[in-house]
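Allow me, if you will, to draw on your knowledge of protein folds for a short while. I have a record of one protein: its chain in single-letter code and its fold written as discrete structure tokens. Kindly check, if you would, that the fold set down in the tokens agrees with what the sequence suggests. Thank you for your consideration; the sequence and its tokens are set out here:
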Amino acid sequence: MTESVSKMQRVVILGGGTAGWMAAACLSKVYGESLSVTLVESAEIGTVGVGESTIPMINLFNSILGIEEADLIRETEATFKLGIEFIDWTRIGHSYLHPFGAYGMNMEGIGFHHYWLRLAAHEGAKDYGQFNMETLAIRSGRCGPTATDLPQIKLNKAYQFDASLYAAFLRRYSEVRGTVRIEGRVKDVHLNPDSGDVTGLSLEDGRTIEGDLFIDCSGFSALLIGKTLGVPYQDWSQWLPCNRAVVAPCETAGPPAPYTRVTAYEAGWQWRIPLQHRTGNGYVYCDAFAGDDEAAEKLLGRLEGKALAEPRLLKFTAGHRARMWEKNVVSLGLASGFLEPLESTSIYLVQSALARLMALFPRGPVNPGVRTKFNDDMNAEYACIRDFLIAHYKLTEREDTPFWRQCRAMDIPDTLRMRLEVFASEGLLLEFPQDLFKDSSWFSVLMGQGLRPKTYHPLADAMPREEFLNRMAQLRKMIGQRASALPVHSQYIDHLKGGQ
């Protein structure tokens, strides 16, 4: 007879912040009262709290939790995000967009970008952004509902929000559903002498918190996965050399834009994330090419409004833990790894790990095969995102500073080299099982960075010229009309907030 009660009854989350409270919200929603969820955090330690920009996959996470978009907008000072603008990455004075959502529609079984490449090669077309609704909405400062009477053309959007407010929002959500928060700092970690599993956390006040499964959200300190279990860290700084960030909010300067902006500078790049109540800013750089004081001075000098706080310094190494699930400890967020926020993947990677954990959640003692599957999939996903980020640096034409000369000359992983060579020669965008970024994203960045294919898929030539031109014109018109019908971004936010 099967046991009616699972042996995996107690989950202990170490650390709050966005990662910790996302884990608590997910577990408390999915398992309800059948699982004991305890979160241990210290207000004295604080959190990094700079993950303010997201990608559209967050809509799935919020939907699973039952969070309404209007509530999120009100509770987190959120604005909408339709993509990212890259300034001075290819060369100084040049800019391009990486929008969410596809270009046009796939026709005859091949990607739409092949048809645009035909249009460019034989008709002189230059602006592929005309076939992407998010691009047109960004250009006109518009945003609106995802749904449309044209199912094949929908608006893909994410959010720019205050990460600390999002964590607080999820904390309220979780505690209502039974999560118990314990304030305290960990003094000792107890291990089972036979299995090596973590059995409990002793706090400085003398309490011991026992559990069956532990989730390490302790940030860069990685107290459980790193310091206790000794899982090594895979260092990717040879490809992603930025290892510092100075961050500071500033006053808003006009209505918020529905996109994140990243501008390349002498030793790295700077983000601008417009929220309702302020603008988030950060200068990501390599300390081999810029000092910390110099970077802080550069950041403050480039703000669009009055600084609302002194610059805060963050130190990191690009990469991840060799195993993100070790023994009975699953690491999330900064404890599992860090890829610079160039493409806003930090919060997504927490979400992805949680989705995999839910799918593989153990009834009793953890089966080694479950850990292996989780680790293999997460490692592959990190590697795919890594390659996408490296492409931004490698394909630069800039040689004006030592930093950019190093990026342009660096060796790259074989997986990325293959993607670039195939696109350059055939116009094909290879896709791998764990790819987060699909063909439209790769097309945006590779074309934006100046990599032009020599040719395109032969099927794109099968359609007669007049029919081809007519279909392309109709598609461009349809997308343009849909985009122009969207409300102004700030007005849409006010509408969702109920005119408050």
Remarks:
- The first strand starts at residue 10 and ends at 14.
- Residues 1-6 have pLDDT under 50 and may be disordered.
- Residues 10-52+162-232+321-366 form a domain with the FAD/NAD(P)-binding domain fold (CATH 3.50.50.60).
- The CA atoms of residues 122 and 163 lie 47 Å apart.
